[in-house]
Specification:
811 residues; alpha+beta; six-stranded antiparallel β-sheet; five-stranded antiparallel β-sheet
Length: 811
């Protein structure tokens, strides 16, 4: 057997791509383009395309880090971790001002980024597509698309399974499709499908080149069976089915389109049931857009409830009031008002989006209504605008009287004449005796109705033990209200408004429950009202002022509206008034109100301490621990790099373990479940990392040309064969094993020539007593390994769980 005098020439000519070049350049770039094209689906939920530039930066950073690390043969797991770290550095650079050296994350940067993420969560919870590309939204885009880019890059390049990227990219389309009311842009689907087809075509060309050992493949991607043709056909069929069977997106599935849950698109005829359904629903659906409301976030009244039954709670009237046509030129004054307020009315445009209801919400007191459907009516006594059936209303205009009485006017209001209002508003039949006693206790010693109302409203203050929570049993009947007032004190607006109105009735004050929506959130030119803004409050009758709003509910989202007369009250409450304590249950030794300064109380509520020795100790030691672990890991890595390749040094394993502990601990600082997830991923990667470590050690021994070079080369080739499903037979000679390896793996001519060189050196070392191998061994060994990768690549399962590691210990 002869050995070539010189190393065989490299395959390929100028302009041709080797297998390594495919893996390190073409596939990653096409994968990045595919991710960027798929991200265009977010155009359905984010305004404009400014956000796409941020997505492009995130994808570019992830791809560049992957290209650079793979060029120096970095292990797969470390490539992915480095890409995520680079993404974190990008986040702190773009969205914080406290990055270390302007690039790296530190404690201050993490705190700043946490604030941005909290704002992002609020945008997700309350925002309605399409949202403006604010800083919080752009931060979410960078995180989401950056992580998608890491997954796609790992699957397409490291794992060599670009087809699996389709599942990840499908999520990119599924999220905005579930949020957007309108169809997603058609071009987002077309560009995404074309780029994914290109990714599969590139992978097909790569595999064809590996199999045939040719730099180019004529006609790749052509024919009915090519990846591009299959993907294009599947996309065409999906788009056709989507257009003819059901719309892409969520049209037809949102409330108001006929398939929502109870009351999902409006308050309907079972108002409290519908209110609870809207507040409990998982999604946040836009119902109205209100234009020209001004700076005051006034509530939108949809209906009022005047009839209280101790068995069924507050109920809507079975028969609609007669009222007047809603399109009447000048609408009548409500009872109790002698004239509209001073000044011109405010013209408010209300645009229903996903609301389908009997009621048309209005703000304040309507003076004129325009553009409502024929047959809609307005009843000044109840303050509601309604139709005969549920319907999707067009955009309508209200000329509203938004004037409000002063605290002095309300305090000086005379007693209500029973002839001024319907008897139903003062009916107090069947109210529980404990409720009546509480009402008497709260209003005792107060001369004006206004001060009595304020005393009852103040009883629901959190200092008296009341807690706002939608996760509580529904109900406004007698039993539920008694439990809320005296026992649980936990509820949402249904319980708060119902209980306050009952206490007012028990005190002889005319009252009713109003239902509708808070003013929602400012969205630029209009205010967005969603299902999460459904609300109930109390209205109290004052002669000369009519029905006046009072809201006892401490809304968690901060959308309460506090009228000016509430802040100007200067309530004349006697010193021994009981409103600041919970009757019958207060311990005299316990202060009724908070004893901390407001600043300290805010810090406690925010989770922080009042001084440097409080709640800040934990973050300090946490960051110091992470810093110490990072330093330890860097030191261990330095020693491993300097000495780890000598013999069987444990330093590389210790360095890897220290980095693993650091990553798990850092993940645990963010969330315990993230630490568990990272730990599971690291454990799953152990076999692959072990195989990479063995491969690196053997290759180092081969290139060192020491006495063990030939044995290490042969052991690694047998391990490579085992990982590809062909295990060596201990009874075979070296030449027989080599022939079987070449045939089973279909080595090309370059690989076979290099294999003959390796076999010759192994025989000289084992049987000829030669300690120093020929310098050509290292080159021949590398060419055999490269030939195996060209003709028979290792599958992703064998990469994660290498058979050469899992089945028996290796040298």
């Amino acid at each position: 057997m002869t050995r070539p005098a010189t190393a065989p020439p490299q395959r390929g000519t100028s302009g041709e791509l080797s297998s390594a070049q495919w893996s390190m350049t073409v596939t990653p770039v096409v994968a990045a383009v595919t991710t960027l094209c798929a991200s265009l689906a977010l155009a359905g939920v984010i305004e404009g395309l400014r956000w796409w530039g941020y997505a492009g930066v995130a994808v570019s950073v992830v791809t560049a880090v992957g290209l650079g690390l793979r060029a120096v043969r970095t292990p797969i797991l470390l490539v992915g971790l480095a890409q995520m770290f680079a993404l974190l550095c990008l986040l702190v650079t773009l969205f914080t001002d406290s990055a270390v050296f302007g690039l790296f994350p530190g404690p201050d940067a993490f705190a700043e980024l946490g604030e941005v993420l909290r704002t992002s969560v609020e945008v997700v919870r309350t925002g309605v597509p399409p949202v403006e590309p604010s800083t919080a939204v752009l931060c979410l885009v960078v995180i989401a698309i950056g992580l998608v880019a890491v997954l796609v890059d790992t699957l397409a390049v490291s794992a060599g399974t670009p087809a699996a990227c389709g599942l990840v990219l499908l999520c990119v389309y599924a999220v905005p499709a579930s949020l957007a009311d309108e169809l997603l842009p058609w071009w987002a689907f077309v560009l995404g499908a074309m780029s994914f087809a290109a990714l599969l075509a590139v992978d097909g060309a790569h595999r064809h080149q590996q199999w045939r050992n040719r730099p180019t493949v004529q006609g790749t991607g052509g024919g009915l069976g090519s990846p591009a043709a299959l993907v294009s056909g599947a996309v065409a069929i999906a788009l056709f089915a989507g257009a003819t069977v059901t719309g892409i997106g969520t049209v037809g599935q949102l409330p108001g389109n006929g398939s929502g849950g109870p009351g999902a698109g409006g308050l309907g005829l079972n108002p409290f049931t519908s209110l609870r359904g809207m507040l409990d629903r998982d999604g946040n659906v836009e119902l109205f857009r209100v234009h020209d409301l001004g700076d005051e976030p006034r509530y939108l009244r949809a209906l009022t409830l005047a009839d209280y039954d101790d068995n069924g709670g507050w109920r809507a009237r079975e028969n609609m009031p007669r009222g007047v046509p809603a399109d009447q030129r000048v609408l009548p004054l409500p009872p109790g008002q002698s004239n509209f307020g001073p000044g011109n009315p405010v013209e408010i445009t209300i645009e229903p989006v996903n609301s389908e209801d009997v009621w048309a919400p209005v703000v304040g007191t309507p003076r004129q209504l325009r553009d409502l459907p024929e047959g809609m009516r307005y009843d000044p006594g109840t303050g509601i605008v309604y139709g005969e059936r549920r319907q999707r209303l067009p955009t309508y205009v209200e000329e509203a009287d938004l004037s409000q009485p002063s605290a002095e006017a309300l305090r000086g209001a005379r007693a209500t004449d029973p002839a001024e209002i319907a008897p139903i508003y003062t009916r107090a039949d069947g109210i529980n005796e404990r409720v009546v006693a509480l009402a008497d206790e709260l209003t005792s010693g107060l001369a004006s109705v206004f001060d009595q109302v304020h005393a009852i409203q103040d009883y629901f203050d959190p200092v008296n033990g009341f807690t706002y929570d939608t996760r509580t049993a529904s109900g406004s009947d007698e039993e539920a209200l008694v439990d809320f007032l005296f026992e649980s004190k936990i509820g949402f607006c249904e319980q708060y408004a119902s209980a306050m109105a009952i206490l007012l009735r028990a005190a002889g004050i005319p009252s009713r429950v109003a239902m509708g929506y808070t003013a929602g959130y400012d969205s630029g030119d209009y205010r967005t009202i969603t299902t999460q803004n459904a609300h109930a409050w109390v209205e109290v009758f004052f002669p000369g002022s009519g029905w006046v709003q009072f809201d006892p509910t401490p809304l968690a989202d901060g959308t309460n509206y506090t009228p000016p007369y509430s802040t100007q009250s200067d309530s004349q409450i006697p010193e021994d008034d009981p409103v600041d304590r919970a009757p019958e249950t207060t311990d005299p030794s316990v202060p009724a109100g908070p004893t901390q300064a407001p600043e300290d109380q805010d810090q406690v509520e925010a989770g922080g301490g009042g001084n440097d020795q409080g709640g800040n100790d934990s973050p300090n030691w946490t960051w110091w621990t992470i810093a110490a672990l990072v330093v330890l890991s860097i030191v261990a890595t330095g020693f491993a790099a300097a000495r780890g390749r000598t013999g069987r040094s444990p330093l590389p394993a210790l360095a890897a373990a220290s980095w693993a502990v650091t990553v798990v601990f850092a993940a645990g600082v963010v969330a315990w479940w993230l630490a568990v997830l990272v730990g599971v991923l690291l454990l799953a990667a152990l076999p692959g990392l072990g195989r990479e470590r063995v491969r690196s050690r053997r290759r180092h021994e081969v290139h060192a040309s020491g006495p063990e070079a030939a044995s290490s080369a042969w052991a690694e080739l047998m391990a490579e064969s085992t990982d590809r499903g062909v295990e060596p037979d201990s009874a075979e000679t070296v030449r027989a094993a080599a022939r079987r390896l070449a045939n089973q793996h279909e080595l090309d001519q370059d690989g076979r020539r290099a294999l003959r060189t390796v076999v010759a050196e192994v025989e000289r070392s084992w049987y000829g007593g030669q300690d120093r191998p020929d310098p050509a061994l290292a080159t021949a060994f590398d060419r055999v390994v490269e030939g195996l990768r060209r003709t028979n690549p290792v599958g992703w399962r064998a990469r994660l769980l290498p058979p050469s590691i899992m089945r028996r210990p290796q040298r």
